[in-house]
Amino acid sequence: MRRTRPTTAWGAVAAVTGTMLVVAAAPGRAPGGDSADPAATGRPREAAVTLLVGRVLDEGPAAASGPCAARVFRPGLCSGWQERRVRATAGGAGSVLREPTLDRTAHPARAGEPPTDPGGPLEIALAQPGRITDVTVQDGRGRRLAGALGADGERWANSEPLRAGETYTVQVGAQDAAGTPVGVTMAFRTTPPADGGRLTVEFGPGPGTYGAGEIVTAELSRPVPAADPVARARLEQALEVSSEPHVEGAWHWVDASTLHFRPRTYWPAHTRVRVRSGLDGVEFGEHGYGGPSEDLRFTIGDRIEAVTDSATHRMTVRRNGRVIRTIPVTTGKAGFRTRSGIKVVLRKEQKVRMRGDSVGIARGTKEFYDLPVSYATRVTWSGEYIHAAPWSVEAQGEENVSHGCTGMSTENAAWFFDTVREGDIVEVVNSGGEPMAPFDNGFGDWNVDWRSWLAGSALTDVDTAPAQTPLTPTRLHPTT
Length: 480
Hints:
single chain, Immunoglobulin-like, five-stranded mixed β-sheet
């Protein structure tokens, strides 16, 4: 089975129009309606919770200081503070119940709503009895914004700054007073830097321990187009990767603002990696000067590889080259074949609600499903998981009956969930499915052969440099 969105159980799709916070309208309700009670209009009452969504509008970094960052929904404390009341429903749709509260003294001449200030807080709270269960804030590249949900489930706030010039999707899961799950999806945009800012880089995945297939990402604060190969080469040369033990590796330009780094082969188990930026003070022609960026350190754990053969309906799991478990599985059936190729674990989700309409399967058709799923290990952003499938145990090891996910018994799924970590390697062979895309649906980078990977670097001429030649210190300045 597949889902299109991480973590939340509702399939509502948000859109961004101009700079407005947009939500998908609930059935039978026009956005902007004043009534929070459907029964008042004669319709049957549906499960719903009203949320308060607060954020600071385009006021610059100073807006997030003092009480503005510490208090919830107090328009007078922050110039440009905005509050919206948003209805979350069991169907996953929502509507704006009240126009935003906006400090117009700060914006006396502005019509409409300016974008969110990336330096300001983002806060979500309950306006009536219930409980917030999960909040996911994700930018257009799939990067999640860190945040904290209070122990009482009444309030969520971001714990890291928003990025400038980004579009964010906010997914909120909650329960009403009766415990019925509800949800809503929203979107907003942050303002870009006034002058574009200095060229900096943010490295991923973040500190921690990862699997042998983990990819290093470098997100630039402004694009450097392929039409400027000199600037690209200068920038790439300033991105320093070092590791113990030494690996052969290279950067690859995914797009004008994104680079990925990977070794030629998987990271050795227990490798220590450090990534640094030497951009500060470097001139990039019309792209201005580089600025300071934070280093990144992470480690690699045991090398876990899970290879699923869809023809034999078996998954073989190895740790550091030794088979530790063989698991009967079922993968995608005709019309829903599981993607072939190498993927890596993106995240683990203890409970997920999977619905057919999130992948285009219409309600009322024989293929539609709506199931609570346990021990779900995500390998694509479009919704491919390895998960418990107690409803298909008889088919596991015998035939492929899923809608694209890899299903196994609850016992095996719990074991797999506890064994793997982000960055571990998951490969599917003999599925008959489409090949895993390299960059736009998770990390399919390992499906790119090494020569093609080097061709994506601004420092390598693959026509003159033998593919077998170890990388020079110039590529991984100063060493790897």
